[in-house]
Amino acid sequence: MIPHNTEICVLRDAPTLTQAAAEQVVQHAASAVNSRGKFTVALAGGSSEKSLYTLLASTKFCSRLEWGRIEFYWGDERHVAPDHDESNYRMAYEAMLRPLKIPDVQIHRMEGELPSPQEAASRYESLLRNQLGNSKSPIPQLDLVILGMGLDGHTASLFPGTEAVHETTKLVVAPWVEKFQAFRITMSPGLINNARQVIFLVSGMEKACVVKAVLEGSFQPDELPSQVINPISGQLTWLIDQKAANALSSRKLRYIE
Ligand code: 6PG
Which candidate among 7, 181, 242, 254 keeps its CA 20 to 30 Å from the CA of 138? Predict the structure, then answer.
């Protein structure tokens, strides 16, 4: 099931994928700054994302972005303090935001340290409405949401079998994830799908089966939550390395060397 506004790009290997993702961030940032004076991006956890943040902060890329005009958000967070090993904020902070000395006012993290994850979710929803709300649209619009996909088909912290996958009212929710025996905090599908651009980064042979199931299998979002990502008017781009794309048969693939 491939939504109409979707581009699937197959990259030679993981480093080429990271490079392509960085080029996309540069391009979307320039276009957002040009049109609206700032660029709002939601970050994710995950290994491909970490490589992307490291590359963006490197001397090769850092001069190509107007860092002072970028506002950083998170698509999801673990229910941990910001200095915890598992914190998605900490990963992005250490890989990109700290090396680039991004001022705190541009960094809008989810408060995973709050005792109540529901409270953290509702506070983040208010923050998003305050920062990005506008009278024309009830749902804030991010310029770019960066997503990874887990082996179980989850994306952000929308996990199989959780009600979060079907959330239609709230912008941010705190699902209980049985397999981790832990709460997560995550943007809802409605919020992600209102973004101007959504990019999935997926690499590695172990993801080949789930990539095929999500993109070419039947629609079963309770098993494969990544299938609910389908931007309303924005563009969806899958950047997949050759190994993860191995089982795909679709003729819609674009190969990039
Ligand atoms: C999280 C992430 C998650 C991640 C995928 C892919 O906090 O768990 O936001 O959605 O992006 O699990 O992670 P890997 O690239 O490490 O497989």
Answer: 7
DSSP 93-142: IIIIITTTT--GGGB----TTSS-HHHHHHHHHHHHHHHH-BTTBSS---
DSSP label at residue 195: S
Q: Is the CB of 203 under 6 A from ligand 1?
A: no
Show the tokens assigned to 51. 């490589």
155 lines ligand 1 (CB under 6 A): yes
pLDDT tens series, the chain, 257 aa = 677 789 999 999 999 999 999 999 999 999 999 999 999 999 999 999 999 999 999 999 999 999 999 999 999 999 999 999 999 999 999 999 999 999 999 999 999 999 999 999 999 999 999 999 887 778 999 999 999 999 999 999 999 999 999 999 999 999 999 999 999 999 999 999 999 999 999 999 999 999 999 999 999 999 999 999 999 999 999 999 999 999 998 667 777 76
| Global pTM value | 0.96
- Which residue has the least CA distance to atom 11 on ligand 1? 148
Any atom of ligand 1 within 6 Å of the Cβ of 227: no
